[in-house]
């Protein structure tokens, strides 16, 4: 599912002995002076001076609040992060049987059909919606389209798609909780070679169904929570990562789906949603990554089976005029809308995981540098992805171009992404960079996989955008121009807040060592002479620093390595805004 086929605390305390770096606590706003050691007049600045140019009159556009989404967050996390979307997605949601309240966990967990713990129909989905509402977020519900649903054994017991008793020894099994459940991969004890078991009976742990079953699911959600315009579920996702069903759901869909299969399913299930709730919003195709943007599951599987990666030979592609997969799908939706005067696709959504090892816990020096650079794949038309992709991914410009050409008016969303290193400041700077990019590049929706653990560095990287002071104060909602000379080492994003004209500037210092002297020049802004500064470093707390002078439109600061700093500049008309 997650294949993009697309201590400074200790250092900071030592360095504060060389220059004045007082800090405050957000809870009290009381200044706490960390004091001097040595000569405060001779700070050690080891990195080049960086000048960031902010222009409040340039590149102005609204920042969608929906770019700050997460997945499977608790209501406490949603409230604390102050984020608007909570997604229920992933491989298991492809097989959620709402009537039994059970999931088949597919390749993620030995293809087991497992009781969710409550026999009440729809209990898990209803709990998720209630939890999202309690956290003041919109629930995003995955609507299964694969055509199979899990069943349970007697007494709501587990069932296995690959029973070892039935299909023989396999490469691994659920040895602790269900030893009979294999992973669907056979093994030769002599040669130790593995192969997929694709001749299982899908009825072992599942049953065949259709869209009528899912219509009752949508009707249940509407009956329980109301229509989307009256507090009900607003977003429906058209299943999950279809083009790799032949891997993730091989027990029930061993053949890679064709372009036409997914088109027809999306038409059918999107129309199902709209017929029950005309104002609900449909998101799709929820494709998994680089290969899935261009090639159907059928062709991806065909290429592997035939060891032929010459795209001119791909049979499904040739059967559909040689089109790239997702542009073709957009065009098919557009043609249908033209013929029926009904829009079935509201958000063109894909998933994105960097492929150079970033989505991991690896924080070696080399990997931290790769993680710093690889966010360019989201926006930079000149950046060549450094992984096996070895191409200009330029995902956001690419998505916008496809929509403009093939289905104008469709919103774009990246509904699953993750840059890894959740417990390290390098993961935090990457996360902050990604959120800044989404806002600057005018993405309509983005949802991280999943919610980070509370108070990890990546969690706090989201929080500094949405609730830096614990009072739900947030980064601005109108993007403005912010130019930094080298985004691989330091990136900057700026915005204004509509309600009070305050400018917010997020500066992400990615360098791994040393101090960086920062100068921010602000044009076309009549602000006051002081700015707030909030900062996240590897000490992993969002801390308010002493206010910083802003003289003649310029503020200067010293930034620790691997830090995220938010500057707040109220307008002259609102000098107390945010203070």
How would you describe the overall organization of this protein?
The chain is of the alpha+beta class and 579 residues long. The chain has two domains: 9-61 and 474-569, Immunoglobulin-like (Sandwich); 64-150 and 209-466, Glycosidases (TIM Barrel). It is 26% helix and 24% strand. It has 15 helices and 31 strands. The protein has a nine-stranded mixed beta barrel with strand order 3-23-24-25-31-27-29-30-26. The protein starts with 8 loop residues before the first helix and ends in a 10-residue tail after the last strand.
What is this entry, summarized?
Helix content is 26%, strand content 24%. It is an alpha+beta fold and 579 residues long.
Total of DSSP H or I helical runs spanning 4+ residues: 15
Structural class: alpha+beta
Instruction: Kindly provide the radius of gyration, computed on alpha-carbon positions and rounded to a whole number of angstroms.
Output: 25 Å
Give the full name of the CATH homologous superfamily of the largest domain: Glycosidases
Distance separating the two termini = 44 Å
Which features does this protein show?
579 residues, alpha+beta, Immunoglobulin-like, TIM Barrel, 31 strands, globular, disordered N terminus, disordered C terminus
Strands, helices and their partners?
Elements (H helix, E strand, L loop, with lengths): L8 H7 L7 E2 L6 E2 L17 E6 L5 E2 L7 E2 L3 H7 L3 E4 L7 E2 L4 E3 L7 E4 L7 H12 L3 E6 L4 E3 L8 E2 L3 H4 L5 E2 L3 E5 L2 E3 L6 E3 L9 E3 L2 H15 L9 E4 L6 H4 L10 H18 L4 E7 L2 H5 L2 H10 L8 H5 L5 H16 L6 E6 L12 H10 L20 H12 L4 E7 L7 H16 L4 E4 L8 H10 L11 E6 L6 E7 L6 E7 L6 E8 L6 E7 L5 E4 L2 E4 L2 E6 L3 E7 L10
Parallel strand pairs: 3-26, 5-6, 6-10, 10-18, 18-19, 19-20, 20-21, 21-22
Antiparallel strand pairs: 1-2, 1-28, 3-23, 4-23, 7-8, 8-9, 9-12, 11-17, 13-14, 15-16, 23-24, 24-25, 25-31, 26-30, 27-28, 27-29, 27-31, 29-30
Helix pairs in contact: 2-3, 5-7, 14-15
């Amino acid at each position: 599912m997650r294949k993009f086929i697309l201590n400074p605390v200790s250092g900071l305390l030592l360095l504060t002995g060389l220059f004045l770096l007082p800090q405050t606590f957000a809870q009290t706003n009381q200044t706490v002076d960390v004091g001097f050691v040595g000569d405060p007049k001779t700070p050690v600045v080891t990195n080049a001076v960086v000048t960031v140019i902010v222009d409040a009159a340039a590149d102005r556009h609204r920042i969608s609040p929906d770019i700050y989404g997460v997945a499977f967050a608790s209501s406490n996390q949603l409230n604390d992060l102050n984020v608007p979307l909570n997604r229920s997605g992933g491989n298991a949601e492809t097989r959620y049987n709402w009537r039994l309240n059970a999931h088949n966990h597919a390749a993620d967990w030995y293809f087991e059909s497992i009781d969710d713990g409550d026999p009440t129909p729809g209990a898990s989905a209803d709990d998720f919606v209630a939890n999202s509402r309690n956290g003041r977020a919109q629930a995003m519900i995955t609507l299964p389209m694969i055509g199979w649903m899990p069943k349970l054994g007697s007494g709501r017991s587990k069932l296995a798609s690959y029973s070892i008793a039935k299909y023989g020894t396999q490469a691994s099994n659920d040895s602790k909780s269900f030893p009979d459940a294999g992973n669907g991969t056979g093994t030769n004890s002599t040669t130790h070679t593995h192969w997929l078991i694709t001749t299982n009976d899908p009825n072992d742990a599942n049953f065949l169904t259709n869209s009528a079953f899912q219509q009752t699911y949508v009707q249940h959600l509407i009956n329980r929570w109301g229509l989307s315009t009256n507090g009900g579920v607003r977003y429906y996702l058209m299943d999950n990562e279809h083009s790799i069903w032949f891997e993730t759901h091989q027990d029930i869909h061993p053949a890679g789906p064709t372009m036409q299969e997914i088109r027809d399913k999306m038409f059918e299930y999107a129309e199902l949603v709209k017929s029950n709730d005309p104002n609900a919003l449909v998101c799709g195709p929820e494709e998994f990554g680089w290969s899935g943007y261009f090639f159907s599951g059928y062709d991806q599987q065909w290429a592997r089976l035939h060891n032929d990666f010459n795209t001119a030979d791909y049979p499904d592609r040739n059967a559909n005029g040689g089109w790239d997969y997702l542009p073709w799908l957009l065009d098919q939706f557009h043609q249908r809308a033209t013929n029926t005067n009904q829009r079935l696709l509201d958000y063109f959504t894909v998933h994105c995981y960097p492929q150079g090892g970033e989505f991991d816990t690896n924080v070696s020096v080399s990997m931290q540098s790769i993680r710093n650079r690889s966010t360019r794949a989201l926006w930079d038309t000149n950046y060549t992805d450094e992984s096996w992709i070895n191409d200009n991914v330029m995902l956001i410009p690419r998505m916008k171009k496809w929509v403009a050409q093939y289905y104008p008016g469709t919103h774009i969303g990246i509904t699953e992404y993750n840059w890894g290193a959740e417990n390290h400041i390098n993961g935090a700077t990457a996360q902050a960079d990604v959120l800044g990019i989404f806002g600057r590049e005018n993405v309509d929706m983005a949802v991280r996989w999943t919610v980070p653990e509370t108070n990890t560095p990546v969690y706090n990287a989201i929080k500094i955008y949405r609730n830096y002071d614990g009072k739900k104060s947030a980064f601005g909602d109108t993007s403005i121009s912010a130019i930094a000379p080298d985004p691989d080492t330091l990136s900057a994003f700026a915005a204004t807040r509509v309600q009070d004209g305050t400018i917010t500037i997020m500066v992400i210092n990615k360098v791994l060592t040393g101090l960086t002297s920062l100068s921010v020049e602000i044009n076309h802004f009549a602000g006051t002479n002081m700015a707030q500064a909030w900062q996240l470093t590897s000490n992993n707390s969002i801390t308010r620093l002493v206010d910083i002078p802003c003289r003649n439109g310029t503020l200067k600061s010293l930034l620790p390595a691997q830090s995220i700093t938010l500057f707040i500049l109220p307008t002259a008309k609102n000098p107390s805004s945010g203070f």
